[in-house]
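Researcher: Quick sanity check before group meeting.
Model: Go ahead. Protein one:
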Amino acid sequence: MKLHWSPRSPFVRKVMIVLNETGLVSQVECVRSVVAINQPPNMAVMADNPLNKIPTLITDDGLALFDSRVICEFLDMKAETGLFPTDPARRFRQLRWQALADGMTDNLLLWRTEMTRETGPWPAITSGWLTKTRAAMSLLEKEAADLAKDPFGIAHVALISALGQLDFRWPDCQWRDHFPTLAALEHDLAQRPSVIASPKAEDQDEAAAQVTAGQLTFADQ
């Protein structure tokens, strides 16, 4: 199998955690693929995915799978790991939490791109992302205890990836000070071997870090 991959993508990190959970990581060739909404399409990725997005997984049968949710479920079914529960009630709890974490990650990625606009960000857009990120984090804090009780699944994979993106692009937001139950859950999840083997990105680009510094705060919500 082949995976269009980047160490900075939180959605790629989701797939890497699942690959390590399923024991399939050695069966995948990771191909460094750079894509960005504000850059021309990567034609190597376009050849496999007309949406020009990563992760994209090419299976052994030559089928190109798009979107981390589809890829993760494919890998889970292939290895029969149980990250996607079969029990309907638990399955939809896990899928709901995955959708919440993934949705917050989407907001953070779009927000960061908006902050790099040469003419400056549009406050009406960034203020909306701030409101939605705060609301998502508040709900995750409220439900963190229930998440902690649920056996490890795709919801936890999505959550650790979303929180890693917060640490990556907004290292000064101090979210752990405002969401202690969620912080405790993240600390426990971070000890899992699959998470350790799939570390969050570390940004060495000081200019990029300065772009987002101070834009996201939970202090006055």
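Researcher: Fine. The other one?
Model: Protein two, sequence then structure:
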Amino acid sequence: MNNDPRLYQMALTLIPKIGAITARKLIAYVGSPEGVFSERPASLRKIPGIGEYLAGQVTTKNYIAEAEAELENMQKFKIASVYYRDAGYPWRLKNCDDGPLLLFYRGIPDFNRVKFLSVVGTRNATSYGREVCGNIIAELAAKYPELVIVSGLAYGIDISAHRMALEYGLDTFAVLAHGLNTIYPASHTDAAIRIMNQGALLSDFHSTVKPERNNFLRRNRIIAGLSEATVVIESGNKGGALITAEIASSYNREVFAVPGRTTDTNSTGCNRLIQDNVAALVEKGSDIEKLLGWETSAEPVEPQNIITTPLSKEETLILNALSEDPGLGQEILGLRTGIPLPKLAGTLLLMELRNWIVVMPGNLYRCAVKWERKI
């Protein structure tokens, strides 16, 4: 009997027509991936949005055996995974309704970093695009060595972003549109090997899945979901970079675009994102720093006395988050704590009036009290 906790998680991802959203719904109703496979078909059919067809998909094939074979492949290729309910799952991706049930990786990812920036663009990058990409990453790396650069390992801007991150000592995540037993394109294998030692290769595709066209669209949601902002550097009227920007916007993440001349076909997409108010115009790293409120020029606040009055659940969650990562904005605090934004805003105001927290430049919050994390 295979007691690997990933077995039923894996089996659920193997069922045709059941994607991340439906899988999460099944688990929410039944309680666990294992429970999905032990539940009677009649009970599954009663779950809203499942119906007879999907309920039949769960019970008509031995997905457990397929899952065991996939786990063997993962061991062979040294592929690890993280489940969406695990503490180590990327916290921003956890807040995306269609975030993958299982995220596969090779390397040494630190998903608990605060600063993630996705950098995407055309596969046919010009010298201008590559230069801007390099300058932005170099400038940010000098001030924020903890920053993680996310991209897709594709030709053009993607590989430029990865290589610049590696050159300037930043961790970088490459999100692939296929299984992690191979590298595509093969010409980027050397970079991929370096990335595994200074970040990770990521995918939500099973180990042997090939890089088919539709996979790249699915891959883009992970690039957008991992980061607090996506930067588009050179894009035509169509392409994966624009799709990634649209997905990032739908997740309520920041979108930035580097402008180009009106006659540059590689900049028409970026210029349109700016014109349509989908993206803010950026030209250098300091523009991104300012728009995200990353400036660290303010004097640090010395903590005052320990709080002695009883705290609400929301206040405890906020202080826990700020004690780990000083200088978070409302949106990130909302993602980290799960507190709805209207309630979060009111709680933050009350805590500020009580001098428990202070607001820094860029509308970032920091603890103003001595605080040890509480469960």
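Researcher: One line on it for the slide.
Model: The CA atoms of residues 80 and 254 lie 30 Å apart.
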